[in-house]
Amino acid sequence: MTAPLPIGQALLQRGLIDQQQLDDALERQRTEGGTLGHQLTLAGAVRRLELYDTLAEAWDAPRIDLIASPPDPDLLHQVAYGDLLREGWVPHRRDGDTLWVAIATPPDDELRAAVGARFPGAEPRFVTTTDWDIWHAVEQANRQDLLFESQDKLAEESPLHSARDGLTPWQLRTPLILLAVMMVGFVFAPKHSFALVITLANVVFLTAILFKSVAALRAPLRHRRIQRDELLEMEERARRGLSPRWRTRASDADLPIYTVLMPVYREANIVEKLIANIGSLDYPKSKLDVLLLMEADDHETIEVAKAMRPPEYIRLVIVPPGHPQTKPRACNYGLSFARGKYVVIYDAEDRPERLQLRKAVAAFERDEFEREQLGYDQHPLACVQASLHYFNADYNVLTRMFAVEYAHWFEAMLPGMDDSSIPLPLGGTSNHFHTERLRELGAWDPFNVTEDADLGLRASVMGYRVTVIESTTGEEACAQTAAWIRQRTRWIKGYIVTAAVNTRNPVQFARDVRWRGVVGMLGLILATPLAFLVYPISLGFSLATYVGVQVIGLDLPSWVVASSVITMVFGNLLMISTAAVAATWRYNWRIGVFAIFSPVYWLLHSFAAWRAAYQVIGDPHRWEKTPHGLTEDYESDAHL
């Protein structure tokens, strides 16, 4: 019997590719790795069905359509769906001792051993199918398990870490009790009660301001620490006889598969731009595993995505109906199919820096080297966060204010927190995870509408680290006030819920995260929504106190007047100055100067905060969608 031709020659002989296409694919295989067939389909040289028809002949295993002839679900359920997706086979049917196995990988000894381990005593016979057919068959057979994992697994297996049950009874009662005490105080001791309320409001406001400002002021120290650590590492590497500087992987062939999750909902207008932005990443396409996550009721986006016929490295995943219908639930569903060693989330309008995936890989691999080879005493790295900026920063006043806020957050405050080893709240996008560690954390909480901040804290509770990397992603800032209010309501509501989840057992939380985690919880996660809630009270009472004492002779202790005025003046100036410096560095002075309007911008936050507080009680899981693509074609003149 004549030995089958290599796949490249077989395709060439069938006239499905030409010699140039084969040579180009072989060169990419040499430099990037992967299979030759995958390289050919990525390049569009051959269609998927043509490739697998040729492989079926080479493997002497006729091709089967698993959509027309689905596998026996009882057989499928005998093997974990993750193993089937990873190994590229599914049991199809059984005839006595003969087990028919549909394969998308060569029927070698390793595959036979894997089948034999799951089905002892069975004699495997092989038929060929496509990798897409296997994925679809596994998804259909395990739909209920996938839905459970994406929406209920965390709540069922780790209820203390889930927001499904909302606030506990004592958390709901505490604000009502404080309000009742305050009202009684105003009836029987109005002067002292007034002084106490304004003092507490000022303390909350100043706590949030001081935390964010001190963290921002520490950002330059992080750069010095990095330089110092690099020098110490160079000395240690030299002592061990290693090269003096860390080097990333020498060849693209050594790079790991990277999964990119892209949740979209009612965003048919920007799907094309989204695919183009991901395609511009400097990472071998043969190592990209991109999942476009679309909700089942979003028919327009689904139809547009299908009509576009996206590149082979992009899979269209339709998330089945379920509750709650949120972005983290969709990401959890996509995570079940992730093939990459690392996984990142990008929003629909994101424009990540071209080298971002490579920088994330380098950060994870350097962490492993430091812990395993150099013996650094540090927790394993679970996630690295890239910074975010706005490509439409100077579109209008609102986008300028949003840009100032994000610059202060990502360019100053988060690096400063990282330098202080305080647990970081993640941004909603451009957070890169070690996939297996993300699964160990329980993935995202679908019932928390600020799932990113929640996951950053949970990583710290479970003994992992989160850090930032020197890379940035462009996003679209809300250009409409109504949309901004909804987005900020969701964000602040999520912070309130995250604080509530982590303080269900305050003593245990403090033990898990130590004092730095407690400082982060009190100074950022809890103080931020509280500061926005009390800001109108603090501002109004400060003005009323000053005017009342100066004009109508209101009888209040002098320390109340002085502390109120100093808190508002000093707190506002401190926040304005640090935000202005960060925004000027990130963009230019024409953006940074808008920090002067921060006190007015915070009044908008206050409106959103009170709206969020109302929703926490009545509708804690409501996801208010932020519209994208309103200024998609606008390019900021700000220096990025």
Automatic annotation (TrEMBL):
Q: Which Pfam families match?
A: Glyco_tranf_2_3, MshEN
Does Metal-binding count among this protein's keywords?
no
Cite the Gene3D superfamilies for this sequence: Spore Coat Polysaccharide Biosynthesis Protein SpsA, Chain A (3.90.550.10)
Chief localization class? membrane
Question: Could you tell me the keywords of this UniProt record?
Answer: Glycosyltransferase, Membrane, Transferase, Transmembrane, Transmembrane helix
Q: Subcellular localization, per the record?
A: Membrane
| Signal peptide region | none
The reply on keyword Membrane is yes
Q: Where is the Type II secretion system protein GspE N-terminal domain?
A: 60-143
Kindly give the membrane topology term recorded for this protein: Multi-pass membrane protein
The residues that cross the membrane are: 170-188, 194-217, 518-544, 556-575, 587-604
Which residues does UniProt call coiled coil? none
Tell me which InterPro entries the record gives.
Glycosyltr_2/OpgH_subfam (IPR050321), Nucleotide-diphossugar_trans (IPR029044), T2SS_E_N_sf (IPR037257), T2SS_GspE_N (IPR007831)
Q: What is this protein called?
A: Glycosyltransferase
What species is this protein from? Nocardioides dubius
